[in-house]
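Structure ticket #2291
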Amino acid sequence: MRGSGQGFCYNFGRAVGSIYPALIGYMSTSMPLGIAIGYMAAGGYLLVIVASLLLPETGGRELSAED
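Resolution: structure written out below.
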C-alpha cells in the first residue's frame, strides 16, 4: 500500500509539473518571463509550506493492518 501511494504521488507530481512550462509561456505573453517564473516558483514554495504544516507526522509510528 505504501509503495502504491508513493508511486501515485511521484507520478502525479510529474504530470502536474509537465504543465508548468506551458503555463509559464502563456503567462509570459502578458508579463516579463522572469516575473512569470517567479510567480510559479513562489506558488510551488507556498504549496510545500502549506502541505508540510497541514500533513500529520508519521515518523516512528507502528504500521498496523487496521490503518
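Closing remark: The mean pLDDT is 88.
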